[in-house]
Amino acid sequence: MTMESLSNDFKDKAELNKPELHGQQQQSEQPGSEASPASSGKKNKKKKKTATATDSNEIKEEKANGDKAEDDDDEDDDDEEEGANTTEATATKKKKKKNNKKKKKTTQTEPPTIPVSKIFSNKIYPEGEICDYKEDNLWRTTNEEKRYLERQNFDQYNDVRRASEVHRQVRQYARRNIKPGMSMIEICEMIENGTRNLVEANGMEAGIGFPTGCSLNHCAAHYTPNTGDKTVIQYGDVCKIDFGVHVNGRIIDSAFTLTFDPVYDNLLAAVKDATNTGIREAGIDVRLCDIGAAIQEVMESYEVEIEGKTYQVKPIRNLNGHSIDPYKIHAGKSVPIVKGGDQTKMEEGEYFAIETFGSTGRGYVHEDMECSHYARVYDVQHVPLRLPRAKTLLNTINKEFGTLPFCRRYLDRIGEQKYVLALRNLVEVGIVDAYPPLVDTKGSYTAQYEHTIVLKPTQKEVLSRGEDY
């Protein structure tokens, strides 16, 4: 063996002792290709480089595959989260829709037709204006015993607040819509129909408290048109709108004065200020005469100029506020609007109509004109009636009105006919009282404002107070 062949033999053995390189070489070679022994050493470096590149590509590929798998997993997770979010969003949307239905509040129509019980679905009605008592009665506000008594009377207060809310909504509609040229019957029917709708009139459970007064100019009170009355309101008229609402006999008695000519503004301001003064002075253990003195002082401080002549506003001294009992509009106590007179005190739990009347005339009224207002006497004893028609009419009055005031139009509405003589007979025997219109001197102008208050154990509440007056 020559030295050259021995050297080649060692080289071949050395090549065989490199398994890693040999494996790499086999991987890099294509099937069916052969490497010559002479070129194997020359190509080692290239083969190694190729193997390394291949390994790198495999790693990259595996990494890419792994990343893709992770991305796929992420996408699956995202899909699951998106699905969960969509489901949650749908549920929230449904919940919101459901809540929106609950929160949707019913609003009143024009003219008012929706009962207040539908607007206040929880059947809890808004309070009026709450006022603290003065001086010695301030302790009542936080007294626990008095607060307990007040909670005990919640149902009673809630009934009268319902009547108050009806009054507010009806009168605000009336104030917007009464215009010169309307007949007095139109005005009264607008107010009365609205009241019946909103209070859900139902016999003696709820309904109109007394006939709608719409006294004009020198007529101060107790005028409502009888059927066939064609009186029309004019631009220069001063109209007193006085109407009542009751729920379970608890009556809200409230009035305002309507004018179109600003010349009467001071007359209205005087009477409104006087009424608010009476409300401010009213309270438990307050003497009625003291309230009257305060009212007179305020009202007489005003003047009004009409057609170049100046008038001091005078309180109508023979018209008064009054206490109110269930189904009894005049309960016995009178609240004067001039000084002097009744020393009686107001008491806890009483309801009062604080009303004041101002006039440019004498400040004194008398009965005149055709009568329209009537009311059955509250505590009348049994009286024998000879006229069968009077007996029938009395039964109708007891059933439809009880001791609440009514007017001829109401009898017409329920289908009574030819009742005038029977009604006169009931008045003559003392079963029914007649309340003719009350007027000052012709050519004078009178105004009225009125609110109903309750003297609760802790505070007084002006039940009929609204944004308008």
Q: What would your notes on this structure say?
A:
It is found in: Cytoplasm. Residues 160-363 form the Peptidase M24 domain. Its EC number is 3.4.11.18. Residues 1-114 are annotated as: Disordered. Residues 9-21, 57-68 have a biased composition (Basic and acidic residues). This protein folds into 2 domains: 126-368 and 441-462, Creatinase/methionine aminopeptidase superfamily (Creatine Amidinohydrolase); 371-435, Arc Repressor Mutant, subunit A, CATH 1.10.10. It is globular. It has 469 residues and is α+β, with helices and mostly antiparallel strands. The longest helix has 60 residues, at 44-103. The chain contains 13 helices and 18 strands. The relative contact order is 0.12. Strand 4 (238-247) and strand 5 form a beta hairpin.
Fill in the keyword field for this structure.
2 domains, 13 helices, 469 residues, EC 3.4.11.18, 18 strands, Creatine Amidinohydrolase, seven-stranded antiparallel β-sheet, hydrolase, Arc Repressor Mutant, subunit A, alpha+beta
